[in-house]
Fold this protein.
Amino acid sequence: MSKRNVVEVLTDLGKDIVSTLRDGEFPTFKLPDRGTKNIVYDSAADQFILGNSQITRDSSNTKHIRSFAQLIWVAYFAKQLIEADRTSSLRDLYYSSEAFGIDFCDQAESDRMVIDLECLTGVPREKFGIFPEEHSSIFGAVTMRYTVRGYEGKEVDLTMSPDGLPVGRALMTAEPISTEAEVLLAVESGGMFSRLIETRAWERYNAVLVQLGGQAPRSTRSLMKRLHDELDLPVLIFTDGDPWGMHIAQVVISGSANSAHIMGLTIPDARWIGVTPSDIVEHALPSEPLTNADLKRLDELSRDARYTGMEWKNHIKEFRALQRKTEQQAFSRHGADYVVDTYLARKLE
Amino acid sequence: MSKRNVVEVLTDLGKDIVSTLRDGEFPTFKLPDRGTKNIVYDSAADQFILGNSQITRDSSNTKHIRSFAQLIWVAYFAKQLIEADRTSSLRDLYYSSEAFGIDFCDQAESDRMVIDLECLTGVPREKFGIFPEEHSSIFGAVTMRYTVRGYEGKEVDLTMSPDGLPVGRALMTAEPISTEAEVLLAVESGGMFSRLIETRAWERYNAVLVQLGGQAPRSTRSLMKRLHDELDLPVLIFTDGDPWGMHIAQVVISGSANSAHIMGLTIPDARWIGVTPSDIVEHALPSEPLTNADLKRLDELSRDARYTGMEWKNHIKEFRALQRKTEQQAFSRHGADYVVDTYLARKLE
């Protein structure tokens, strides 16, 4: 969606309100219900989506008027931002509200209003220039073209910084131009990311490396999806060998409940390459017993619609049988090169 | 210290042990005592240093033999790393030990052994290629020259990525070549860092920007110090307006107790530019009451040798009188440009 289209969506929203008021009526918003009961798994799209249940925010209702006004202000703030070609963190948005007498209890409340605006308009907040502070990194033989002010049209080679490049506001809005790589390998930890750069594993396997840093920020998932779609890069995900690591991969593949109102973030044919429970055994990795929290998480995942595939069911079964977990770094037990020369060599075949 | 010198230090350590054994004696290590009682503030160096108290680790003592062996293994691991031109995270080091039958209870124990090696040799772990995972970022008109493998001699302009560059293993070992900037401005939060890039405040104030991300990693402090010393950049630090933000600045200026065994990390003429308690009043910033934890922290700081200067005493007094704190982002209350056009304009005069 182009910048002009985004402004148009916001302008139309404002015009609707004004014309309703001119007709002597109270304006209302209809929003999809984001309650857990209205989040359904759409197997065709292979992601969570919101169901048909809706809620109405009615400005004639004194209980609704506060959040109604807050939502209008967030839309106003977003329009100002995009027209000024600026961006804002969610935290800045929260503080900016004070000058307008908009009374948010806390940042959690203003963050929710931003999600409401996303639902109302179908536009993800990144398009309005509103970002969280979280970051992950990328490194590999990809050329991208910046679109941010001061850097328009400038091309960047993602191998230029041997520490990787942060997936910040500039990179997440840049256009993928070309790649010499054959695969995108996303890894959970910064330590593994550094090791794969340093040992030149990226060259050996023709891989673009992405450091997820735990649950991947939406900006990173979106960048990975564009590299997958536009540059035909298959996506592999390498995480710690525990229920949480497995789920980091799952969210990249099939989406999260929290982002059920955003389409086009999932990569259904991405694959989790481990560390799987059977890898723990096969590679004789140092491991620890699953905790109660881990076991509880496995129970939740076994009831989760995203885990109905046979392969996922097997992973859960094996975790339960093995009762152990491990980390990506555990391969160091076999020397610094084992993870690249042996483990990844087999997985990337 | 050059790579060859570092290897020499480790080799000498090994030779000493072997020759002691050949003489039929039990080798011992003498280490500075790192207990809080032996950490003193050296006002000449303007940083914490370790006092004269020493501990002995004696291989003839069964209580010492375990940690004695662990320390030798860490020295061995460091020598392997540096000779292979590799690096390792602290986590990887912990896992690597298992293959050698070195029995660390947990990573905290292996991390302590790395500090022991630093104390024993006087060489910071970064010189051995051992790093934590933490990261901060940098952006500005500085040219640096990489020294890491595959990038030797390659120059990088630190404005090349509009998202900033991570201060990773490559950048922290790169050499500062030249700068067009006149000041180094370190900021606490990622949001402020992005804003100062995006609004081109770095250009307007001729500033190199560093994002500390809370308490600055040692690698970032070391890079800042080299930019200060080698390129004559004065250092200003801009943090949240609370006791914790003030102390983030203080650690850059005068060092931390945890790094008391490492010399050459402090920047005594760096300055904290706020947010000070009087800024909160002067700029009518949204603020919150100090919590009990904040007040307790103020008490600790008021007894801390680093806070004996009149200016610091005043800040503490004013925090206590005002009983309020704020964040960098709070300037957004006055619009997105206020922090640059008004606040920083005054502070950077």
User: Anything to note?
Assistant: Chain A has a mean pLDDT of 92. Chain A touches chain B through 53 residues (CB under 8 Å). Chain A has two domains: 3-131, 137-347. Chain A is about 40% helix and 15% strand.
